[in-house]
Amino acid sequence: MIRYCYGAAVVSLVLLLAACGSGDTPEEQVKLFVAAGEGAVESRDIGDIKALISEKYGDDHDRTRRDLVALSARYIYANKNIHLLTRIGELTFPSEDSALLRLYVAMTGQNVSDLDALLNMQADLYLFEMELVREDKEWKLLKADWQRARGEDFF
Q1: Could you tell me which of 109, 113, 110, 116 has the C-alpha nearest to residue 76?
Q2: Rounded to whole angstroms, how far apart are CA atoms 100 and 95?
Q3: Domain that holds residue 137
Q4: Average pLDDT in the 89-101 region?
């Protein structure tokens, strides 16, 4: 159970890894952010993960930015290989500088190229509800919550 909490925290951080300046629209910027976050987790870069989290981060479980970084580091150090497959379920923008993101993430020790490959392997599946904020022209994670997801959520 603890392993799953670490994994979920890592994914939260991972999904936050992209500075968004290169996309033309807010939607494209958040998609780039998710892709960059995925890359950061897979490359096991704690510094990049930390950079994606707002210093104002806080969630309903009283976790801080420091707590998420620590959870992520524990997960990364406990797992030799980390591969992610992400799918955006919903993306809305309550304001110009804030985004609400529903993200499905499959985490496994094997490379996952697509949803078909996911059917043939064992993976930890999560649903992340994330609030992003644009700070100094970069998207940062402001709040996150996660829970186990079902296989059908990915299709």
Answers
A1: 109
A2: 10
A3: 2-154
A4: 96
Tokens coding 57: 């981060």
CATH number of residue 72's parent domain: 3.10.450.50
Could you write out the DSSP letters of every residue in 115-140? HHHHHTS--EEEEEEEEEEEETTEEE
Tokens (6 digits) for 49: 């993960």
Query: Which amino acid is present at 105?
Result: V
| pLDDT, tens digit (0-9, with 9 covering 90-100), for 10-29 | 455 444 444 444 568 999 99
29, 20 in Cβ contact below 8 A?
yes
Q: What is the pTM of this model?
A: 0.80
Q: What single string gives the DSSP state of each residue in 84-119?
A: EEEEEEEEEEEETTEEEEEEEEEEESS---SHHHHH
Q: How many structural domains comprise the chain?
A: 1
Q: What is the pLDDT of residue 1?
A: 46
